User: What shape does this take?
Amino acid sequence: MDIAEIIKKRRTFHIFSKKSVPREVIEKSIFAANQAPCHRRTFPWRFTSIGIKTRELLYQLQLTLKFGEKSIHESNLKMVRDKMLNPSHLLIATQVCTDNQVQKLEDYAACACAIQNLSLSLAAADVGCKWSTGKITKDPNTYKIAQINSNDEEIIGFIWIGYGIVPPLIKRPLISTIYRERD
Ligand SMILES: Cc1cc2nc3c(=O)[nH]c(=O)nc-3n(C[C@H](O)[C@H](O)[C@H](O)COP(=O)(O)O)c2cc1C
Assistant: This one.
C-alpha cells in the first residue's frame, strides 16, 4: 500500500472489538517505532505491554479515578470496562527521563515520531490504535501497577491497539492555511 494511503487511513479508534491482533503485527509496529528519528541518538522511547491481569488492576484504578466512592451505574461500569479491556493490546508508552530540559523536549518529539511510526505500521495491517492521556497516565498508582519507575521513565500515553470501528472523517485545516512559500 502507498505510504500516502496508509497515512490517510490511520485514525484514532475509540471503539474496539475483542478480536486479538497477531503478535507479529505488534512486533512489526515496535520495529517501526524504533526507526523514528531522534537527535543525539538518545532513543528515549520505551513500550511496556500490559497483560490482562494488570489491565484488570488498571480498570479498577480507572473506576476509582473517575467515580471515587460514588456508586457506579451498570452502563458506566460497562463503558469503562469495554474501554480498558476490549482492545487486543495496551502498550504504555514512556519517555526516558533526563534533567536536561532541551533534550527532554526533543526526546518527547522523538517519542511522538515513534508512536506515529507504530500507528502507521498498525494501520498498514488494518489494525487501529488510540494514543490516550489523562489522569490515569499520570497517577502514581499506574506506575506501581505497571512496575514502571518514575525516576527512570515518564508515561507519555497509553496506546490501545485492536480492531474496531473506523471513526467518521474529521475536518482538517485547508492546506492553504497551513502551508506557505517565500521567495
Ligand atoms: C499526545 C496525544 C494525546 C492524545 N490523547 C487522547 C485522549 O486522551 N483521548 C482521546 O480520545 N484521544 C486522544 N488523542 C487522539 C486525538 O484525539 C486524535 O488524534 C484526534 O482526535 C485526531 O483524530 P485522528 O487521530 O483520527 O486523526 C491523543 C493524541 C495525541 C497526539
User: Anything to note?
Assistant: The mean pLDDT is 97. Strands lie at 45-49, 89-96, 128-132, 153-162.
